[in-house]
Amino acid sequence: DLPAFHNELKSHPLTGVYLSTTGCRVCKSIKPEIVNLFTAESEFRFLTVDCEVSSAISGQYLVFSVPTLILFFEGREFTRFSRFIRIADVESAMSHMRSLHESDDKSIST
């Protein structure tokens, strides 16, 4: 449900959302790599959305092809990867987001 989804995004400053469908073979083949990536990054929250079940979420975020991975920074879309997702590109974006988050934390504490 859309309000619960928005609450998740607001409560976790670094979030990855993987959007797919049950019939998508590419989605099924890349998902384990994406899950492993987020499992290794404890500061990131990882959510999955089935676009066939949660059409309101996929509609609001204009997801027209799957798989799509959207990275959110402090509740706002930071970047997205669709269809052919390169893990190295995702890692780079996550590293950049982590750096931004760490610099935000430092500026707040000083």
What does the model show?
This protein is α+β, with helices and mostly antiparallel strands and 110 residues long. Helix content is 50%, strand content 24%. The protein contains four helices and four strands. The protein has helices at residues 2-11, 25-40, 55-60, 87-109; strands at 14-20, 45-50, 68-73, 76-82. A four-stranded mixed beta sheet has the order 2-1-3-4. It is globular, with a radius of gyration of 14 Å. The protein starts with a helix and ends with a helix. The mean pLDDT is 92.
List segments where confidence is low: pLDDT < 50 over at least 5 consecutive residues.
none
Overall pLDDT: 92
Query: What best-fitting shape do the alpha-carbon axes yield?
Result: globular
Q: SSE order, as H and E? A: HEHEHEEH
SSE topology:
Layout: H1 2-11, E1 14-20, H2 25-40, E2 45-50, H3 55-60, E3 68-73, E4 76-82, H4 87-109
Parallel strand pairs: 1-2
Antiparallel strand pairs: 1-3, 3-4
What are the key terms here?
110 residues, alpha+beta, four-stranded mixed sheet, 4 helices, 50% helix, 24% strand, globular
Quick recap of the structure?
The protein has about 110 residues and is of the alpha+beta class.
